[in-house]
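Researcher: Good morning. I'm working through a list of sequences from a screen, and I'd like to move beyond sequence-only analysis. For each chain I'm collecting a predicted structure so we can compare shapes side by side. This is the next one on the list. No need for commentary yet; just the structure.
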Amino acid sequence: MELLGSPLPTLYTHPGSTPAKFLPPISTAPSSKNGFPSSPLPQSLSHPWVPRATNLTIGPSSKSSQGLTPSEALPPISSRAAPFTRYTPGDWHRSNLTNSKASETSRRNAELLTADTSRLIQDKYQETRKTQVKTTKKLGERVNDIKFWKSQLRQELDKMIGENNALTDVTKRLERALAKTEAPLQVTQECLLHREKRVGIDLVCDDVEKQLLVEADVIRSCQERMRRYLDQAEARLTSNRMAQHEVERDLANKQVAHCIDDQCHQLRNTSDGISYYQGVERVDATISVPESWAKFTDKNILRSQSERAASAQLRDNIENLLVVTANEMRRQFSCVNVAFTHRIAETAEAKRRIQDHLGKTLQEIFQLKRTIEAIRKAIRDKGRPLKVAQTRLDKRTRRPSMELCRDTAHLRLVSEVCEMEETLQSLQQRLGDAEDTLQRLVHAKSVLEHDLAVKANSLFIDQEKCMGMRKAFPSTVRLLGYV
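Model: Good morning. Structure tokens for this chain:
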């Protein structure tokens, strides 16, 4: 198959080999030493126009004529063979005709060769020009392809850089939010430790303690999820940077290739810097074909897009996690505060009731002490009348003889003494009961005072220490990691 612009095949007619000189020089013809030819030339080796019977007589050999002038080298005319002639007129005409035909044939062949060469030069010029135009077009298409993939890579690189920056910002927010959870957890633990300092009956596992334990579990759960997503974010950033590095390297190679191919596309026959590089066409340094070349870049872009999509999904998950954890911690914080409020109110009410009971108990103790004092005074007051009655009876026992009469006075004195002894015994019994009651009231007062101190301690721990620390709980903005 012939290429476009190739020259048509031409058949050249080459004439038979003609001698450069039709007459041999005299000085080079062989001759014998004595002037006679050493051997006659055969017909097959002689010229066609030489007569068959003609014998050439050559002068002395070149050996004897060296160093002599031409006139001295030629023998005298008288020594030639007179009857013999070198050439005939027919030979001379045939020689001229042969030379003319040979010259005409050479000119005709030269004209054909010149015309064919001109056509060949023109065809090759057009073929070279068309080939160069096609090559330049292919280089331009290649430059456009590289420019297209460069724009795709640059767009993807810009998007990946933006995604990495966004993911980095979200990761920093997550780190700040994770750091902000340490203070609430410490507050919760300190509240639990402070509430361990409650004493007595107030050291109870109430709703506040349950909510505090739940709050500690919620904060630890949020921290665990944050740490897990933080590890995922760091791994995702590493993958994104690897994909970004591949895109950047591919883009850098594309820029170098674009610069080289654009220079090649701009080269012309009149450009500077062109030179011969022998054998460069036999050097095959290529490692890809257009399909694999485009597939390689497309693979890098697809990988970057995939990594970027996964990164965007992870960012959304982190955003949702920050919102969810902040809401969970704030909700549990509110629940703990509500439990504290209820417990503080209950403790304050119990303290108020204890204070009321203590006041009444103190009042009753005071009244009972006055009663005891009155009983003791009454007992003291019954002593003299008893002494009088007993003294009367004792004195009447000293009456003589029949004067010892059990008369009405005697009976009345005995009855008076018995009544007064019964009264004293009754007062003593009542005094003992009153003193026992006073002891019980005093013990109750001590219990109430201790319980009041316990309630005051619990109220101080819950209201002053715990609620005072919980005022420093981070805001929602801080829990979201913005500050």
